[in-house]
C-alpha cells in the first residue's frame, strides 16, 4: 500500500462525498436503500465510513444519484479502490480498534484526556505490557505481545521527523500515582513522560487531585483533527465492547469546549513537569503499601 493512502480516511472521505450527493439529490437514506434493495443501515454505514465500500457500490449509488460527470464517478471509484487496501495495522491481524488507528495515523493533531493511565502514544514498552496484561487477564501471551507491538508502532507518529503528530495530553494525577507493574517501572515511565513533554509538538499537563471537579470526570476522550479541511474533526470515546465516534459539529464543539476548560484547570506545562518529577520521587522512595487483610509475616 502506498504510504500516503490511508484506507480508513479514504472510506471516510468517500462516505462524506456520497452523503453530499444524496442530500443534493434530496433523497433520504431509506429511499436510496429501497431503490438498491439493501438495508438502510448499509447506506448509513457506507456514508459514515465504518464499512468498506466496493466500486460496484459506488457505481450503483452514482446511478441512483444520476451523476453524469464521468470524472466525478471515476474519482469516487478510485477512492473506493484505495479504501479497500490495507493499512500497516492489518499486518498484526484482527485489532478491535483498527478504525481509531486509521484515524490516528492520518490525524494532524490529537487532544486527549486520560483519567486512568498514561496515554498510549506516550507509554514505555514495559508500561504498555503491564497495562495490557492487567486489562486482559485471560488473554494469551501472543495476544498481549501483538497489542504491545501495535501500540509501539503507533508511536511512530510522535517520532516522525517530517510530519509528527501534534499531541496535547491532559493526564489525571491518579494515572501517574497508580502503580502499574512496579514502582521502578513507574519511575521509568514518568521520566519518559517528562522527556516527551520537551518535544516541541508534545504538550503534557497534569490535572491534580486538589483541583476537584472538572469537565473530564465523565472519562477518557480524544479529539482528532486532520490536515485536509474537508475532513471534519472526530471525538473518540473508548468503550469496553464497542467504541463511539462523534462527528456532528455540535458534538465536536461541545467536547472541544470541555477540553479548553480542562487545559485551563490543569497545571501549566512547567508546573506539570515538576509535579511529575515529585511523583516519580515518591514512587522511588515509597515502600509497597500494606494491603487490607494481607499479613506480611
UniProtKB/TrEMBL annotation:
Source domain of life = Bacteria
| Record domain HTH cro/C1-type: where | 18-72
A molecular function (GO) term: DNA binding
> Per the record, a Pfam family?
HTH_31
**What name is this protein filed under?**
Transcriptional regulator
Per the UniProt entry, what species is this protein from, by scientific name? Streptomyces roseolilacinus
